[in-house]
Design goal:
Immunoglobulin-like; 6-stranded mixed sheet; 20% helix; 7 domains; 52 strands; alpha+beta; 891 residues; flat
Length: 891
């Protein structure tokens, strides 16, 4: 009996052990969990999970601190274990960390769902420990001598704490307060270098070395010493310059009439709107600290300022000082002095001096004397004629008269004495008529005659207008309708062909221009009757023209167009023929990435000079590229633009410019603001307001100086005003930079007046954030100093198309928003719908966007994004695909 009980107990224990093992296997299928990794930044490591299951292998999910890793770089391997029909699987999942960063540190686990239940592996830990990493480093800067300034340096671990040590000229600084993020420097008297060291338990990291250049202080006490009619002498007290002696001082003077305002002066005289004349600039050796300005205008106020320089650079300018030259005496005598005698009277007449008066004319002095009489001097005021009463024969014997003008500074030179002549009949009007006869009125009708004529004229105009309106109501496209018959008084239709005057009007316009017959023949298909163009609202206004919405009335339809008026005046007949010849060429443009020209008409008449050109272009409802880029970045809810879309924009522009270069056309104003987006979101090169057809040779030299977009112009064009196809390549490089930065202004922080010197020193635009290295290398080649070293537009197009093909296809989101720019209530038109440097406006209301699903999107991915409550599309990082040349992992 005892043996039986013992056997039952052993069987029961074995069954319980097997059941417990089976329950544990179902509860936790993981046989291996992630390990622990600890290392420095940039470390590459792998975490591994392993599990065994029966049935369909589950998908392994990685968790970091309890959160699902959406973009984890993980791989999963499934190996069958069963034999003879058994369905057992071994699943191995590996997570790869390519470059360990602070965000990667934490607790990692694997999760699976088996039989409707979720199982977790044991956690593994990833820790970051290494040398300190700098978040801020000291930057180069210029400071004024003996003036306080601050430098910043910030670093982090782990491990913490991180202690900072500042160094000046490679020597440690004793700040007296331990580790400091901000270094307060009381002032320097020489150019120095600063850096900082970050210390933690793993070692030391040294920051970049910043060079602090010391400039002289601003001069003080700028004041006027002496003044003359055409000269001014000013003096000043120099500021401290440290250990570097002053080499010279520079003084600027500008006429007060050209002064634009105290706050608007800096950078305004080199092509900016409302700019004054370029100031007079002189250099003075020091000491003494004074300078005389010569060759100035008399009795004129000037604004002056001064800056002093050492071998390290120039000091800040002083505040502007208003000084004024003094008055002077007239430089020449009155002209055409004549004297006539009539009985006992003498009439003397003269004209104002021709040379500058050098002040305000206060009057004239007249002197006369006879042969036996003393000289008589009299002040006649501002009159230019006077009657002298002569008494006695001695008074008129050989009488000689002389006149001089005078100002507050004194008398000017006297005129050559003239002898009194006897007036004779037939020698002009008598003296009393010349002096006292009032002018004959030019119009002496009674006032009521004028009023009656005005009323009659107004009535005639009103009657004519009513008659024309009445006739127009009865007209159709084919003639007049519903005229009563004479016999029966019934209304019948009588078709009478209407004459078309458009051809005659165009012919009259061409004939009035005075151009050659050959050019007139070519223009017959280009010229448009200006009466067929109806203008609407202004879409935008730029530096070189204004763009208005318009309608072109054609024979059987009405076409919506954009009408661009040019601000560049046509002053000579040669310039007019050049403009019309280029219009003929632009009419023949036929390329998907070049905006075609519909026609040209003129406004104005020959009595006003040469008529002003009006260019008629297709209406682009999606607006200009610059505004589109700004909306994506600065809208109410910014939208991410995929890199593929940006590169496609660049390739479209390069293709259009390649076509223009083959047609021997120079654009001269290529920029994102002058590129338009058509309905398929392809870019069209537009705005030919500055373009030039090259008929002979390979370059064009601009004659008259005009306001130019200096930040887009090549360095050789800024220096010599010479333009080639390679100068358009330079502008294309700047346009690529605009696209890569989503519409930022080139050369931020650099004034227009400083661009030429900035480029001449070898500076160029910096690489934008998130810009592919290959793209920046391509745009940098466009800015080579020697134009022959720059690529052609054909090379640029090919490289951009190759780059676009090498990029992975953009991920299409579930919902894409399309900008609806059609007319309607609450649907504003985009600024600059047909080209023009127009400032961006705020986006329209959200109801101007309509949604399209991914299936409705153009297969080439040509879509327009607008902000909404839905998240914008993002470009995923495919770490498994090969990187482009010069592209870092994860770029």
């Amino acid at each position: 009996m005892d043996k039986v009980l013992l056997a039952w107990c052993l069987a029961l224990c074995c069954w319980a052990f097997v059941a417990l093992r089976g329950a544990q296997g179902e509860a936790n299928p993981f046989v291996a969990s992630p390990g622990n990794i600890t290392g420095a930044r940039g470390l590459t490591g792998t975490l591994r999970c392993e599990l065994q299951v029966q049935g369909e292998p589950p998908e392994v999910t990685w968790l970091l601190d309890g959160q699902v890793l959406e973009l984890a770089d993980s791989t999963q391997t499934q190996v069958p274990l069963g034999e003879d029909g058994e369905d057992d699987w071994k699943v191995v999942s590996q997570l790869r960390i390519l470059s360990l960063q602070l965000l990667d540190a934490g607790r990692y686990q694997c999760a699976v769902v088996v039989g409707g239940k979720t199982f977790l592996s044991k956690p593994g830990y990833v820790g970051l420990e290494g040398l300190p990493n700098f978040l801020e480093e000291p930057e180069d800067r210029t400071v004024v001598a003996n003036t306080p300034f601050n430098l910043s340096c910030l670093a982090q671990g782990p491990p913490e704490p991180v202690n900072l040590l500042w160094l000046q000229d490679a020597a440690p600084l004793d700040t007296g307060h331990g580790s400091q993020h901000i270094l307060q420097v009381r002032g320097l008297n020489k150019t120095s270098s600063f850096s900082c060291e970050a210390h933690n338990d793993k070692g030391v990291t040294t920051s970049r070395t910043a060079t602090i250049k010391v400039l002289p202080q601003q001069p003080r006490d700028l004041h006027l010493v002496s003044r003359w009619p055409t000269e001014l002498e000013v003096a000043w007290t120099p500021g401290l310059s440290g250990i570097y002696p002053l080499t010279h001082c520079t003084l600027q003077a500008v006429l007060s009439d050209d002064w634009p305002g105290w706050n608007d002066w800096i950078g305004m005289w080199d092509g900016e709107p409302g700019s004054p004349e370029k100031p007079l600039t002189l250099q003075a050796s020091v000491p003494p600290h004074r300078l005389r300005l010569a060759g100035l205008h008399h009795h004129t106020p000037y604004y002056t300022r001064v800056s002093c320089a050492s071998s390290q650079g120039s000091s800040p300018w002083t505040h502007w000082l208003l000084v004024e030259t003094s008055e002077g005496v007239p430089l020449s005598p009155p002209e055409n002095v004549s004297a006539m005698r009539n009985g006992s009277q003498a009439f003397v007449r003269w004209q104002e001096p021709r040379a500058p008066l050098q002040g305000t004319l206060l009057g004239y002095r007249l002197a006369y004397r006879g042969q036996d009489t003393p000289e008589v001097l009299m002040d006649v005021g501002l009159k230019q004629e006077v009657i002298l009463e002569l008494r006695g024969e001695g008074t008129v014997s050989n009488l000689k008269v002389s006149v001089a003008a005078y100002t507050a500074a004194g008398d000017g030179p006297w005129s050559v004495p003239v002898t009194l002549e006897q007036w004779r009949p037939g020698q002009g009007q008598p003296i009393h008529q010349l002096v006292s006869e009032p002018p004959t009125p030019a119009f002496s009708w009674p006032w009521w005659y004028v009023l009656l004529g005005a009323v009659v004229t107004a009535a005639c105009v009103l009657f004519l207008a009513l008659f024309l309106i009445h006739r127009r109501k009865k007209e159709t496209r084919y003639g007049e309708v519903f005229e009563p018959t004479v016999e029966r008084g019934e209304l019948v239709v009588r078709y009478r062909v209407r004459k078309s005057y458009s051809r005659r009007t165009t012919e009259a316009t061409l004939n009035s221009l005075g151009i050659s017959e050959e050019l007139k023949e070519k223009l017959r298909d280009v010229m448009v009757d200006r009466h067929k163009v109806a203008l609407g609202k202004t879409l935008g206004e730029g530096e070189f023209g204004a763009v208005m919405e318009g309608q072109l009335n054609q024979d059987d339809s009405v076409l919506k167009v954009a009408v661009k008026t040019m601000k560049i005046a046509i002053c000579t007949r040669s310039e007019l023929e050049d403009f019309l010849s280029e219009a003929v060429c632009m009419k023949e443009f036929d390329h998907p990435n070049v905006m075609r020209l519909i026609g040209v008409c003129f406004q104005g008449s020959e009595r006003e000079g040469f008529p002003a050109p009006v260019v008629i272009l297709p209406f682009m409802k999606h607006g200009d590229l610059h505004s589109f880029l700004l909306y994506s970045r600065l809208g109410d809810q910014p939208v991410f633009l995929p890199t593929q879309m940006l590169v496609k924009f660049m390739a479209d522009i390069a293709s259009g410019m390649e076509y223009l270069s083959t047609k021997r056309f120079i654009h001269r104003d290529l920029a994102a603001r002058n590129c338009m987006l058509n309905e398929n979101m392809s870019v069209c090169v537009a705005d030919f307001g500055l373009s030039k057809k090259i008929y002979n040779g390979d370059y064009y030299r601009q004659g008259r100086i005009a306001k130019m977009p200096v930040k887009w112009i090549a360095i050789e064009s800024l220096a010599d005003r010479v333009y080639t196809s390679k100068s358009d390549v330079w502008s294309f490089g700047v346009t690529m930079w605009e696209i890569a930065t989503r519409g930022q202004t080139p050369y931020p922080g650099v004034e227009n007046s400083e661009i030429y010197d900035y480029l001449r020193q070898g500076n160029r635009l910096k690489q934008p954030v998130d810009c592919l290295d290959g793209l920046y290398v391509l745009m940098s080649r466009c800015w080579e100093l020697n134009p022959r070293d720059r690529p052609s537009f054909a090379e640029l197009r090919e490289e951009l198309e190759d780059t676009l093909k090498a990029l992975p296809p953009a991920q299409e989101p579930d919902e894409i928003l399309y900008v609806n720019m059609d007319e309607g209530v609450g649907h504003p038109e985009p600024p600059g719908a047909a080209g023009g440097a127009d400032p961006p406006t705020q986006p329209g209301p959200k109801d101007s966007c309509s949604c399209l699903t991914a299936a409705e999107v153009h297969p080439a991915g040509r879509y327009v994004l607008c902000p909404s409550t839905a998240p914008g599309p993002t470009l995923p990082v495919d770490r498994s695909s090969p990187a482009l040349p010069g592209q870092e992992d994860g770029a």
